[in-house]
Amino acid sequence: SQQGEEDPQALSIQEGENATMNCSYKTSINNLQWYRQNSGRGLVHLILIRSNEREKHSGRLRVTLDTSKKSSSLLITASRAADTASYFCATASGTYKYIFGTGTRLKVLA
Amino acid sequence: NAGVTQTPKFQVLKTGQSMTLQCAQDMNHNSMYWYRQDPGMGLRLIYYSASEGTTDKGEVPNGYNVSRLNKREFSLRLESAAPSQTSVYFCASGRDRGPELFFGEGSRLTVL
């Protein structure tokens, strides 16, 4: 069973616009991570937010976490064509069992 | 610095054949993982190894076996491949401090 579910499944925006994707999860977590996957490649870690944090920034990335709603959002500001990829949230209910969501496919049009 | 290396990158098998996917990491990480990725399903954990000498089942372990050969290497074996095992397989490793995972580039397996 999937722990995380991303929404929307697919998103298409113009270069320079902001992209927002959401992740919902089912059980209590220690932390939540976001990963990016370029087509045909492995996943790359983007950012981590711990359960006692509400917001975190890294460059053009902003992540929020609402543990009461069991949800997180990833905002990419001023998107670029190079941001075209799939984005996954991952949660850990224990130390090693990282569970990934189904992903959001982002397409940034130049 | 190679990171996580998976071999082979592509493989075609016939139903019933066996094969082993190899994974090696050069980052001195203790934990290693095998995931499979199917369209619309995201990544699902097959097996993981918290440290050398230990392995544990993930979400979808049926039809697979693993071996943590040493700290660097973690292999995934399909004893009798089935078409349902057609997928992209990813190996990952993780540090002791911090939950970030480092992924290989994937192994694309087709079972006919």
Task: Quickly describe the structure.
The complex is a heterodimer of chains A (110) and B (112). With 110 residues, chain A is mainly beta. Chain A is built from no helices and eleven strands.
Can you offer a commentary on this structure?
The complex is a heterodimer of chains A (110) and B (112). Chain A is mainly β and 110 residues long. Helices cover 0% and strands 58% of the residues of chain A. Chain A has strands spanning 4-7, 10-14, 19-25, 31-37, 43-50, 55-58, 61-66, 71-76, 85-92, 98-100, 104-109. In chain A, strands 2, 4, 5, 9, 10 and 11 form a six-stranded mixed sheet that branches. Chain A has a five-stranded antiparallel sheet with strand order 1-3-8-7-6, with no helix packed on it. In chain A, a hairpin with a 4-residue loop joins strand 7 (61-66) and strand 8 (71-76). The mean pLDDT of chain A is 92. Chain B has no helices and eleven strands. Chain B has strands at residues 4-7, 10-13, 19-25, 31-38, 42-49, 56-57, 65-68, 74-78, 87-94, 101-103, 107-111. In chain B, a hairpin with a 3-residue loop joins strand 4 and strand 5. Chain B is globular, with a radius of gyration of 13 Å. Chain B starts with a strand and ends with a strand. The model of chain B has no long low-confidence stretch (mean pLDDT 94). Classes of the chains: A mainly beta (110), B mainly beta (112). The A-B interface holds A 1-2, 4, 30-31, 33, 35, 40-45, 48, 88, 90, 92, 95-103 and B 4, 31, 33, 35, 40-45, 48, 50, 56, 58-59, 90, 92, 94, 98-106.
